[in-house]
Amino acid sequence: MDTYDGGIEREYRKRKKTPPLMALSMGLLGLNALFQLHRQHTTPPWVPASIAACYLLGAARMVVYMRRGRTLIGARGITARRALTERSRAWHEIYDIRAEPVPNAAKSARKWFTFLYDTEGRRFVLPHMDDWQLDDVPAEVAALREAAARHRGAAWDRRPEVEARIRRRAGHRKAWERAFTGGVIALVCGFLLWVVLLFTKDHPPTFLPFLWLPLGTFAVLAALLHWRWESQVPRELRQP
After folding, report:
1. Of 120, 157, 183, 227, whose CB is crowded by the most CB atoms within 10 A?
2. Edge-first strand listing for the sheet containing 70-73
3. What is the Cα–Cα distance from 69 to 136, expressed in whole angstroms?
4. Mean pLDDT throughout 85-111?
5. How far is CA 25 from CA 28, 44, 84, 199, in A?
6. Nearest to residue 186, comparing CAs of 238, 222, 142?
7. How many CB atoms lie within 10 A of CB 164?
């Protein structure tokens, strides 16, 4: 974290190395998956190619994020710079800045993230304001809130209507996460089904277990979970 005298200007960027165990495990898992798929001569060529492409794109995005990612704080507001995009909020649009723990985080994973909440209840993570780069994330966020008070033009008071919007968006975000988890489970089940069919059919289907089953599961779960959550939200808080 870099600070500049005479104001609130701060820059949070990558200063510490990524934990070696995390980088090594991710690399070994990816290589092992590709090796196992390459050994299966019955696997359609597009399956390992697609997985390899996704893995390489994800790795490239992470490398760019680690080099380009910044949280820039100044008199006008906060800018979160990611691998390819930027999001900015002026101080009058910022409702809160919160350090939040990660439930059940693995030993080598990040255990604290910092989120910016705007007055519409939206949130986004502030790059490199986590325990990989900061020794005490809650203390750093508390100091930042104190320094930003005069630029924000209002106290850091809780407003019931904004808190309600935050809870509403959190519910929909949880619905997306659970739908994605359901899609991954369906993909794993589809893979096991495909393995069984290898021994019972000459040409087992591939699009059904690897594409349509996980996509269909994701779509159905997303629709049901969003509908269930929206039905519990008071009418005055629903979007038109």
Report:
1. 183
2. 2-3, 10-12, 70-73, 77-81, 86-90
3. 20
4. 89
5. 5, 27, 25, 32
6. 222
7. 15
Task: With beta carbons less than 8 A apart as the criterion, state whether 133 and 65 touch.
Answer: no
The residues facing 78 across adjacent strands are: 73, 89
Report pLDDT for 127.
94
Distance CA(78)–CA(94), nearest Å, equals 9
- Checking 81-90 for CB contacts under 8 A at 24+ apart, the result is 81/127, 82/127, 87/124, 89/116, 89/118
Convert the pLDDT of each residue in 23-34 to its tens digit. Answer: 666 666 666 666
pLDDT at 154: 74
Going from the C-alpha of 111 to that of each of 85, 103, 108, 134, 233, the distances in angstroms are 24, 8, 9, 11, 30
For residue 28, with 0-12 CB atoms within 10 Å meaning exposed, 13-18 middle and 19 or more buried, which class applies? exposed
